[in-house]
Specification:
Structural class of chain B: mainly alpha
Largest interface: A-B, 35 and 28 residues
Radius of gyration of chain A: 25 Å
Number of helices of chain B: 14
Oligomer: heterodimer
Helix content of chain A: 25-40%
Helix content of chain B: over 70%
Order of helices and strands of chain B: HHHHHHHHHHHHHH
Shape of chain A: globular
Strand order of the largest sheet of chain A: 6-7-8-3-9-10
Number of strands of chain A: 22
Structural class of chain A: alpha/beta
Strand content of chain A: 25-35%
Number of domains of chain A: 4
Largest sheet of chain B: none
Distance between the termini of chain B: 6 Å
Radius of gyration of chain B: 24 Å
CATH architecture of the largest domain in chain A: 3-Layer(aba) Sandwich
Shape of chain B: globular
Number of strands of chain B: 0
CATH topology of the largest domain in chain A: Rossmann fold
Chain lengths: ~525, ~300
């Protein structure tokens, strides 16, 4: 088989300065096959892709070889020769559909460009005609060539990016976290498309991801990458069923957290929302008016002390609007929200605000980088009168509660890892001793192993402090692990709600069923057999 | 796109209306009566009163404002108190110098700045970048009137290629351009330095974007990526600076006009102020405001042409 390999990485290593970021990587890409490269952030996944493309950052030095069938070692090629290979023989798609396309260029032109650059079309007209055909193929037949990226949805943009990548009919396609930024339904559509393209065109695909569930569904072989080294490489079934390396084992365990054991919660209701409706009024855009937008429609929910309510739904379904409304940050047009017997509204008193806090998704963007941790954590205390000594001791307690040390109070956010920052965010949310914590995609940006530890922390905090959680996520395996009850949102409404285990195994609504079907799962080798 | 255009146009008209009120009120509070200034110290009270009536200074503020604005809309800017000719004629003469000078300087600075900025961005950190940026720093630091004098010393006094000052008029196009060349260079150089720096940093920021990486992955060379993908995306900040520069060049050339003895708008307004020729001051200021607002409007349209996301 080895002579058939389209692309072979032979003992590839990459160093930046004295630091070795990739160490002795050997991978083979075969026609019609999908090879997955799995690892957590900083493991060197993207660096591998960039090394193959010859697009390493300045100062990075690659050794070993990248053998392209029929060409030879790419590392030995000059820039001009590489330009003829990039896009033509090896194409790549990236994570962010929002930013990976040029915002000021029509999508037809962006697809056609790939053809023109490699001389695959005589002229612009012919290139545009071919672009049309490729866009049709990736499911964008409804989209005109003259549309701009901002006029497309995230999934459509990723399809356009795929069209630009496959237009020159490359032999090898590298997908670097290509579906990570999409919601589950869109993700599953894009994965289906990629799989179909690989099978039909006989491309070799290198699928780079942190998400083992995606890989289980797609890949023929998996290589697990940790700290720049491949720790284990084997056919997908072997990796999923009998992982050999301890790191693979932890990764697998962390990626499929066990569903939460059923609990009966009969304590008092801490939050009651009834028929909450949020309408964004018609906005004047100069001379024109945009129609009013109903973001929440008759949303009702209850939350008991110590309970965790999972809130799931596709992007734009109103999850975050609901969270803001519960925090009293949104004017609501009808209905009522009540926390421990006091009404919630934008003009509620600071003392009332104390009873509910929020943790956001992005552990990098939600802190002022110039503030020390103690100031970040203590800021919510401005809501309530607290003496200076008690401030300091509360900061200390909060840090210890989230598993950090009191000395960390003096440090600045950039001195912490992503997981630690999320712990700081949780400490900040806890400092006012709230009854309710809203966790808005609070673990979505974390690597699976870090995520597992943060989830453990959240669970033990809930036990110790009798906290109630509203757990907003797009990740169904996480919500199964955390929630007692789940509410499914679609287009501003709660379409289904029920005990977590019941809802996940036996969904009543079509929308919930679709959501569950779209979610990638680790048990998939079985599913794949059904499919082929 | 039409909505965007109409919105911008509406904003432009509103700004003009507000500006006219502000200018009128400011001129109202300036001390000194034009009539007594024109007639000199020995004039009788009766003569001053007569002149005031003739100039329409007796009417109420509102009436005079409406008359002023109404006149301007029809192209009638009134009669200059000191020159005794229609202000519109004065403006026309001066604009024939100032407008070509501003456009000339702007073209020069753009023509210089774009290749320099692109070169600096493409060779980031290497000697072309460092050299160009050091020169640009110098260009910003040197006062333009001093630079203008150096130009005069070299090209007019030493080499005698052009005259040291004055304006030859547009009877001969070549002579007109020749007499504006040194002033245009003096004006353009510092502007070019600023523009090149802005373009360089806008390009560098754009080159960090994901879609640049996508373009490189498609097989475009570094140079193709820079010209096809980065330049247009870096265009917005550059357009903003260009717009500001044009306004400055039109109105702010006063020092350069003095160095080169050019009969431009800047000198007109300066003379108007010293001679209490308030109607000239009022009208020229309004005209400059109009020019600035018009340029802003054009820049807004250019934004939309550059960036489809703004066409709403």
């Amino acid at each position: 088989m080895s002579q058939d390999a389209r692309l072979t990485l032979v003992h590839l290593s990459v160093s930046i300065g004295a630091k070795r970021v990739l160490d002795d990587i050997s991978i083979k890409l075969l026609p019609h096959r999908i090879t997955a490269l799995v690892g957590e952030s900083g493991s060197g996944k993207s660096m591998t892709a960039l090394a193959v493309m010859g697009l390493l950052p300045q100062g990075a030095v690659a050794t070993g070889a990248v053998q392209l069938h029929g060409t030879g070692d790419l590392l030995a090629l000059r820039e001009a020769a590489l330009c003829a290979i990039r896009g033509r023989k090896i194409a790549m798609i990236f994570q962010e559909p929002m930013t990976a396309l040029n915002p000021v260029m029509q999508i037809g032109a962006q697809v056609a460009e790939a053809l023109l650059v490699h001389g695959l079309a005589e002229n612009r007209r012919e290139a545009m005609a071919q672009a049309r055909a490729v866009l049709d193929r990736v499911g964008l037949s409804q989209i005109g060539l003259d549309r701009y990226p901002h006029e497309l949805s995230g999934g459509q943009r990723q399809r356009a990016a795929i069209a630009a990548a496959i237009a020159p009919a490359p032999d090898i396609l590298i997908a670097d976290e290509a579906t990570t930024a999409l919601d589950v339904t869109t993700q599953s559509e894009i994965l289906d498309l990629l799989r179909q393209l690989v099978r039909e065109d006989g491309m070799s695909m290198l699928l780079i991801t942190h998400d083992l569930a995606v890989v289980a569904d797609m890949a023929d072989e998996i290589a697990v990458l940790a700290a720049g080294k491949i720790v284990e490489a084997a056919p997908t079934t072997n990796i999923l069923q009998a992982p050999q390396h301890p790191y693979t084992q932890t990764l697998l365990a962390a990626a499929s957290p066990a569903p939460r054991a059923k609990r009966v919660i009969e304590r008092e209701v801490v939050l009651q929302a009834s028929d909450v409706t949020r309408i964004y009024p018609a906005r004047r855009r100069g001379l024109r008016r945009s129609p009013p937008m109903v973001a929440l429609k008759n949303v009702s929910l209850t939350l008991r002390r110590g309970e965790c309510l999972g809130l799931v739904g596709g992007s734009g379904c109103g999850k975050s609007t609901l969270a803001r409304a519960l925090l009293g940050l949104e004017e609501i047009q009808s209905g009522a929200i009540d926390i421990t017997g006091r009404a919630v509204s934008p003009n509620m008193s600071p003392a009332d605000r104390r009873r509910i806090s929020i943790v956001f998704q992005d552990p990098y963007g939600s802190f002022n980088p110039r503030w020390p941790v103690k100031r970040i954590i203590a800021e919510p205390l401005d809501l309530i009168a607290v003496s200076e000594e008690s401030r300091a001791s509360r900061v200390e307690t909060a840090l210890v509660q989230v598993g950090l040390s009191p000395e960390d109070a003096q440090k600045f956010p950039h001195q912490f890892s992503g997981g630690q920052r999320q712990r700081i965010a949780i400490a900040r949310a806890l400092i006012t001793k709230p009854d309710i914590l809203v966790l808005d995609e609070a673990v979505s940006a974390l690597d699976v192993s870090v995520r597992a530890r943060v989830l453990d922390l959240l669970k033990s905090l809930q036990e110790d402090l009798q906290l109630s959680y509203i757990f907003i996520t797009h990740d169904l395996s996480v919500v199964a692990h955390m929630a007692d009850r789940i509410a499914v949102m679609q287009a501003g409404q709660i379409v289904e709600t029920g005990p977590a285990a019941e809802l996940l195994t036996n969904p009543k609504q079509q929308y919930t069923q679709n959501l569950l079907k779209a979610a990638p799962r680790l048990t998939v080798p079985m599913r794949r057999k059904e499919r082929t | 796109m039409l909505t965007y255009f109409l919105n911008r146009a509406l904003a432009m008209i509103l700004s003009l209306a507000v500006a006219s009120v502000v200018i009128f009120c400011l001129i109202e509070v300036v001390p000194g009566d034009p009539a007594s200034f024109m007639l000199g110290l020995n004039a009788t009270d009766a003569a001053v009163a007569n002149l005031r009536a003739e100039l329409g200074l007796n009417q109420s503020g509102l009436a005079r404002y409406l008359a002023w604005v109404g006149g301007m809309v029809q192209g009638d800017f009134g009669i200059s108190y000191t020159y005794r000719v229609p202000v519109s004629e004065l403006i026309q003469d001066r604009l024939a110098v100032s407008l070509p000078l501003a456009i000339y300087a702007l073209l020069l600075s753009t023509a210089l700045a774009i290749p320099i900025g692109v070169l600096a961005a493409a060779k980031r950190g290497a000697w072309p970048d460092l050299g160009v940026m050091a020169a640009a720093q110098l260009g910003i630091a040197i006062p333009n009137f001093w630079f203008a004098m150096l130009l005069v010393l070299l090209f007019a006094v030493k080499l005698q290629w052009v005259s040291a000052g004055g304006f030859a008029g547009w009877d001969s196009f070549g002579a007109g351009v020749a007499s504006l060349t040194l002033p245009a260079i003096a004006l353009a150089l510092p502007q070019a330095a600023i523009l090149a720096r802005v373009l360089r940093s806008a390009l560098l920021e754009t080159l960090e974007q994901d879609y640049i990486r996508t373009a490189r992955a498609k097989g475009l060379t570094r140079r193709q990526t820079l010209w096809r993908h980065a330049l247009r995306n870096a265009g917005i900040p550059v357009m903003t600076i260009l717009g500001l520069q044009f306004s400055f060049l039109l109105a702010g050339a006063i020092i350069i006009e003095n160095v080169f003895f050019l009969p431009g708008l800047g000198r007109l307004i300066f003379q108007g102020i010293t001679q209490r020729d308030l109607i000239v001051v009022e009208s020229v200021t309004m005209l400059l405001v109009f020019a600035v607002i018009l340029v802003t409007f054009l820049v807004d349209l250019a934004y939309a042409a550059l960036d489809p996301r703004l066409r709403r």
